[in-house]
């Protein structure tokens, strides 16, 4: 099956003439003519950008998502290709309306008219995994109905299996591949793609994100109508917004584009560092802008999560980077285990400085991220820095954010915009403020544990007198003044009680 899929990919590449990307040199100019003779269905008369889009569409959802990500990076590719790939965001050929209605009626065990007062059979958006129709419920609420593509799970499973085979071959044929962990990266990608095929999971992610940004002045998340949601269907509040990638339309509506770009950066860092739960598919097809300038999130199929240690290391990296403290960046890489423990800090510091220093104090339009990424890759290879599979989605999202920022405001200074927010967040995580926040969080546990301490200590002394803890307590009592020890213990208990009461009362 994998061999058949691989042959199909090769066939599609040749059929749409994409060998022009691979065979640009004089020595290989004879190959396209040879392929033309062998492949009669070859389509190479259309523009190359259009053929690339059509090829990705025909190959399926994984390749479409790759094209969607590339479409946001206009700084990395020619304008004609970026414009064509942008059509993959919500203009993938839809499946038939008859299929959509059949899926809805099968899921609800009702006729369509019993569920919706009106239902628009022509989809308003069609993407790689699902398509969306507008409808109105019988109580008058306007909704968007997302329907999973029929048979999409099998297609994705086959593509993931093929990618895993390629990763396996890469690991065994290239010695540097193990550092990049391609199979772990594919496994992480597979997990998120399969999550995207469960629309109940997507609905719950939307609900969580809405709760995280309740009463927010930056982001709107639609309401989920749970009564009509299944694993294949999601029904949510219909949103009315403007396309985020149409600067002319936004300006006409009176939207402040520089502020909008800065708000997008703040939304990203808020999701990542405050919540550890972030929208990981932020291409223009999944985002709109409300009339009041707030972002509207529309798709929640791919959401990323971060652990507290990951958040701490990332925040320290970002802040040290913004302060141009390259030594601290190097130290954090080693402390987190991302770089080998025997790495010399001064050497890694110098390498990071040579990559990052040239891009500071420059707007996005003057930064070649292709060159920066290449230099970072070379540096990571030189020092044996391993790819962190759990951060792959974050890196993809950051690329999307930078791409959107570049379209909205080419003068955006990504570093200066993010630095104050991150420094404020870090001040809440460390020092006295961080200590008090942690204490407030743990107060209910302390309130439960403190009354039990005398009983637990008494049981320990009676049942296991041979324990080192018992011996240590006896030695302490013998060495210290008994009265002073009692006073200290009473003061400690009173202090703990006051702290617990303070934080419980809030």
TrEMBL record:
Domain ABC1 atypical kinase-like residue range list: 87-333
Transmembrane segments: 485-504
UniProt KW keywords: ATP-binding, Cell inner membrane, Cell membrane, Kinase, Membrane, Nucleotide-binding, Transferase, Transmembrane, Transmembrane helix, Ubiquinone, Ubiquinone biosynthesis
Cited CDD domains: UbiB
Name of the protein in its database record: Ubiquinone biosynthesis protein UbiB
Domain of life: Bacteria
Keyword Repeat: no
Pathway(s) this gene product operates in, as recorded in its UniProt entry: Cofactor biosynthesis; ubiquinone biosynthesis [regulation]
GO molecular function: ATP binding; kinase activity
Recorded family membership: Belongs to the protein kinase superfamily. ADCK protein kinase family.
Native species: Candidatus Nitrotoga fabula
Designated gene of the protein: ubiB
Gene Ontology biological process terms in this record: ubiquinone biosynthetic process
């Amino acid at each position: 099956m994998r061999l058949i899929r691989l042959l199909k990919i090769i066939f599609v590449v040749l059929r749409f003439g994409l060998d022009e990307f691979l065979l640009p040199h004089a020595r290989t100019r004879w190959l396209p003519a040879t392929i033309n003779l062998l492949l009669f269905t070859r389509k190479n008369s259309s523009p190359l950008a259009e053929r690339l889009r059509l090829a990705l569409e025909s190959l399926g959802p994984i390749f479409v998502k790759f094209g969607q990500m590339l479409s946001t990076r206009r700084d990395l590719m020619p304008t004609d290709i970026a414009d064509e790939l942008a059509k993959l965001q919500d203009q993938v050929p839809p499946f038939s309306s008859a299929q959509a209605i059949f899926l809805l009626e099968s899921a609800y065990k009702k006729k369509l008219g019993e569920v919706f007062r009106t239902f628009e059979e022509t989809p308003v958006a069609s993407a790689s995994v699902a398509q969306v129709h507008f409808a109105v419920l019988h109580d008058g609420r306007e909704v968007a109905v997302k329907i999973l593509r029929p048979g999409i799970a099998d297609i994705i499973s086959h593509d993931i299996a093929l990618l895993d085979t390629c990763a396996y071959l890469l690991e065994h044929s290239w010695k540097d591949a193990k550092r990049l962990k391609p199979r772990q990266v594919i496994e992480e990608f597979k997990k998120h793609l399969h999550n995207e095929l469960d629309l109940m999971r997507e609905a719950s992610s939307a609900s969580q994100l809405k709760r995280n940004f309740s009463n927010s002045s930056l982001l709107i998340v639609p309401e989920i109508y749970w009564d009509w949601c299944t694993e294949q269907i999601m029904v949510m509040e219909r949103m009315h917004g403007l396309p985020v990638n149409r600067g002319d339309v936004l300006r006409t509506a009176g939207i402040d584009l520089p502020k909008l770009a800065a708000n997008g950066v703040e939304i990203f860092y808020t999701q990542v560092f405050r919540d550890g739960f972030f929208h990981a598919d932020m291409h223009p097809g999944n985002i709109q802008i409300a009339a009041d300038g707030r972002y509207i999130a529309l798709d929640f199929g791919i959401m990323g999560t971060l652990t507290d240690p990951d958040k701490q290391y990332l925040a320290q990296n970002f802040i040290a980077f913004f302060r141009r403290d390259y030594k601290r960046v190097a130290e954090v890489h080693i402390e987190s285990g991302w770089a080998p423990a025997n790495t010399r800090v001064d050497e890694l510091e110098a390498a990071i400085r040579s990559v990052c220093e040239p891009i500071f104090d420059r707007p996005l339009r003057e930064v070649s991220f292709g060159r920066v990424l290449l230099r970072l890759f070379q540096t990571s290879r030189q020092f044996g820095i391993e790819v962190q599979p759990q951060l792959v989605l974050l890196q993809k999202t950051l690329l999307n954010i930078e791409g959107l920022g570049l379209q909205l405001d080419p003068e955006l200074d990504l570093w200066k915009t993010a630095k104050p927010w991150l420094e404020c967040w870090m001040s809440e995580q460390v020092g006295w403020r961080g200590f008090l926040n942690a204490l407030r969080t743990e107060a209910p546990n302390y309130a439960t544990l403190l009354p039990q301490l005398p009983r637990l200590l008494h049981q320990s002394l009676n049942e296991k007198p041979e324990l080192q803890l018992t011996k240590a307590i006896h030695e302490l009592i013998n060495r210290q003044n008994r009265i002073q020890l009692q006073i200290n213990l009473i003061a400690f208990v009173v202090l703990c009680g006051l702290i617990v009461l303070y934080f419980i009362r809030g």
